[in-house]
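Lab manual, section 2.4: Encoding a predicted structure.

Procedure: take the sequence of the chain (201 residues), apply the prediction step described in section 2.3, and record the output as structure tokens. A sample record is shown.
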Amino acid sequence: MARHSSVHDGPTTRDRILDEAASLFIEMGFTRAPLSEIASRLGITKAALYYYFASKDELLIALVSPFLDRIDELLTQSAETGVNDVLARRALLSRYADLLRSDMRVVSILSRDFNVSSHPEISPRITAHVASLIELLASADADAEGMARASAAMTVVQRGLFVLPGEPAVLRSMPQDARIELVLQIAYTIVESHDLSRSPL
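Recorded output:
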């Protein structure tokens, strides 16, 4: 007997829901975006959407968790191998930038929507990521300045990937790869200049 396909078949519809949710959360914000609009844009019923996600919160967690999991993996690997010299810190910043680039829509939702970044299931993970990145990027005996530089370098990478309103044309027109390379060079300089200032003559 032939098996008829339906909205409940396989992961395809689930992936489409996540994709449309990401677009709508960026467009309207998480709080204002209704599940009914996601269903309407996909041409499915709201009941069909609830088959995959019982609530908007569950949909949000499913959308951002894979990205946060990849950050967890990077931090765990870096802690295991150690970030003890200039090359290791550069490698960590570069890999971090690559992860951010891998899902810029989710990064945009996390960084621009306070209702997402402050979500009780998301906020603790972001806070832990920030603390771990700063600790890894700063040298083992880092003082307040060293910690501040590590924090600033991380922020430069996070914000530097996005084209911001009001940026000069020379930055807006820069190819993405060139922009990222420039941002990373600035981040490296921020972290490493503190090491140089503390080196014996």
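Check your result against the sample. The radius of gyration is 20 Å.
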